[in-house]
Each structure stands twice: as structure tokens, then as C-alpha cells.
Amino acid sequence: MAIARFPSIVIDCPDPGALAKFYGAMLDWKVDVSSDWAEVRAEYGQCISFQQVDGYTPPVWPTQELPQQMHLDVIVDDLDAAEAAVLDIGATKHPHQPGTSFRVFLDPAGHPFCLCVN
User: Fold this and answer.
1) Cα 79 to Cα 70: distance, rounded to the nearest angstrom
2) Cα atoms in the Cβ-side hemisphere of radius 13 Å centred on 84
3) Ranges under pLDDT 70 in the chain
4) Residue 46 — φ and ψ, nearest 5°?
5) 7 prior amide bond cis, ω within 30
6) Angle CA(28)–CA(13)–CA(115) in degrees, nearest 5?
7) What is the pLDDT of residue 7?
8) CB of 58 within 8 A of CB of 15?
9) What does pTM read for this prediction?
10) Which residues contact 30 (CB under 8 A, 6 or more apart)?
11) Cα–Cα distance between 117 and 101 in angstroms, integer?
12) Per-residue confidence (pLDDT) for residue 3, from 0 to 100
């Protein structure tokens, strides 16, 4: 028997609503925003939550000057099309691209995430 259930991932950020809207647009998930907390939720229940942190400092990747601590990998069918779409909703393409089957981006709060084809 499990000790606990896994309801969501929580990501620190300066503006939970803005980050939830970004990930909601990217994943086509429902967005729910309150004053210092927001979440995006898939129809099948998976959830990513965002909490406001005063004095938030984004990670610096690929160095460990300010460690990334975590990042999300999302699967896409077409890297070029997905890149254009995430840039359009506020992502930034990172200049360091260490692979060919994935691309590294920063979300609006500076967290790295990868678009992956496999």
C-alpha cells in the first residue's frame, strides 16, 4: 500500500498566474488562478501547480551558479512547429542546445524545459 498519492508538481515563481497561463497554453490544460497560487490540470487529472515566492531568482542553466533544481520534458511530434508555438506564448530558446532530439527553452519565469521528440 502506498504511503501517499502523487497529485502534482509545484514550481516556485514570481507570478503564478502568468506561468500557469503559459503552461496551460502549451499543454492545452485547464488553468485555475488564485492570488498566490495557480495550477494547470489535464482532463485525466495530472496537475502542475505554481506558487508565488518573494525574491524569486531564476536558475542559470547550463551552469550550476543557480541550480535549475528541476525541469520538465514534454513530448512533441514536430520540433520546429512546437518551437514556434512555445516562442509565440512566451518561451525563450536557450542558446545552449546540447542535443538533436530535443530543444531547451526557458519558461517566462526562467525555468528550463525541453521539447522532446522521443
Assistant:
1) 22
2) 4
3) 2-4, 7
4) -60, 140
5) no
6) 45
7) 67
8) no
9) 0.84
10) 24, 40, 41, 42, 43
11) 6
12) 66
Contacts of 72 (CB under 8 A, 6+ apart): 9, 48, 111, 113, 114
Supply 66's cell numbers: 543557480
Query: What's the confidence (pLDDT) of residue 4?
Result: 59
54-76 exposure pattern, b = at least 16 Cβ within 10 A, e = fewer: eeeebbebeeeeeebeebbeeeb
| Amino acid at site 2 | A
Q: Which three cell numbers stand for residue 34?
A: 488564485
**CA 49 – CA 25 distance, rounded (Å):** 14
For residue 71, what pLDDT is reported?
85
